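The freezer alarm interrupted the setup, so I double-checked each line after restarting. Inputs confirmed:
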Amino acid sequence: MRTWLSDSVIAGVVITGLLLAAAHGAAQAPVYRAPRTADGKPSLNGIWQALNTADWDLQGHAAAKGPVGSLGAVFAVPPGLGVVDGGDIPYLPAAAAKKKQNQANWTTLDPEAKCYLPGVPRATYLPYPFQIVQSPQNILMSYEYAGAVRVINMGAPTKAPGDSWMGWSNGRWEGETLVVDVTSQLDSTWFDRSGNFHSDALHVVERYTPRSADTLTYEATIEDPKVFSRPWKISMPLYRRVEKDARLLEFKCVEFAEELMYGALRKKSSN
Amino acid sequence: MGRRSLASLAALAAVVLIAVLVQVPAAGQTASSATAGAKAWTPPRTADGKPDLQGIWSDNTLTPFERPKGLGAKEFYTDQEVADLAKRVREGRPGEDIEGAQLGAANPQAVRYDLELYGFDRTKLRYTSKRTSLIVGPEGVIPPMLPQARERNAARVAKIKGHEFDSHEQRPLSERCILMGQEAIPMTPGANEGNLLQIVQGPGYVALLHEIDHATRVIPTDGRPHVPQNIRLWQGDSVGHWEGDTLVVDTTNFTNLTAFRGSSENLHLVERFTRAADDTMIYRFTVEDPSTWARPWTAEVPWTKTKGPVYEYACHEGNTMISTILRGARVADEEAAKKGK
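Predicted 3D structure, all chains:
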């Protein structure tokens, strides 16, 4: 009896230990080492895409009726658990009110509806692929949406010549991670279709970390003292488009936005 | 110092200045010699062994697209002629025509802007080769358009006539920021602004970022075929490969509205990028469209390395022109209606 009991206790301890070890191992998994470029840096080359609903709403949300009733279930809002660490976006009170207003009028106010350049980080998780072309001096990111593009300077950090839609990107390597510091973005872009927004004081630090041959972890820390009470972070995996013939196609969306923007100015009598 | 020696000193200074202004890159001189020049000069390589085309390039040039009338089959200027022409540019004053100089794409009179306002330095205007026109060959001009193409293009114009201001759909593509003249491929030098091209190379791809309307092409160089014929693209579908030190880019699948100098959707474009010197890249393109021209034609543009930066050209985002034009037209409609009553 004693033996049986002590045996079970020992067995229990051993099993618990194994479980703990397994859990510990999962938390501290060995860092994935990405294939190298010719100059010895982790290679992020490829066509990537987010597979989530962050562009609908960075925060967790249930499915909802779409904005265009005549489309039925097509273009309904798909559900998602959200990509904001901790779930909350720490708006200052006035900014929280503006966010609500944006959300209520998003179909006409959202810069995406007008086919405007998306800014960073939204460019990353729009429902379109983007391609990374990596050289030692520069990393070019070409986005299918609106033909947006940015060139990340990998040399000594440089200063933006002025504010722009896609901002000014200086990059560096921290081990396996590409860290990109993005400044000088205009205040005109949004984070999603739910009216999440920022000011011209936006400062984004992005981290691209290879986590397997065909996935990256994308993290972006968002800081904007005019709009948020503290920095906050989003994170999500990015997936490689592994189709044999994967490529970016043209999505010049200006022509799709014109009716929304200029339709009211159409000549009235069409005779 | 006497008057005379002062005058000759001034003359000498002028000669030196012209010499500085008219520095023509050696390899750019004879275009057909792009390959010959490359033999004498070894182009740099990327880490993975491909010719390194990277950097920021400018296609500003005084050389006109088509050969000026009166030059006949003369394909190249002499050194003296280039010097004289450059001198006339230097002496020309903004807002005044330089009559007879037949200046090229970068002719400061091509547009009536205050060039300095745009950060454009007219002393940097130069002939980038001794060619009399960017179009190569004895004709030096675009071949005559086929009758069917003239009819097609005339019909398009006629369809819009009288309805130019009805809606955004009748406005030119460039005004709508859908396809700018010079962003369109092939890339041709324009009047003074935005002629920068940044090239970034990664394994298996060459990315071309043209400053105008941030037009970007990420060109695969793995020999893959074009996308299926039914997929038509404003900028066409570009695939590339390396031929020795030259990047060759083949583009098809244009839309029927992507009219490059009146071309049709059958436009087939072959572009060749060859480094010719540390600061020079020869961009040579051949345009083929049997629905528009009886024969293919070729132009050659020397690109010069420059510092940049490449600015963001957010055309659509800042486009107040379309709404302003249409609003004006609607006001005019209302006024006309009032008068009619």
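Quick read of the result. The CA atoms of residues 166 and 326 of chain B lie 7 Å apart.
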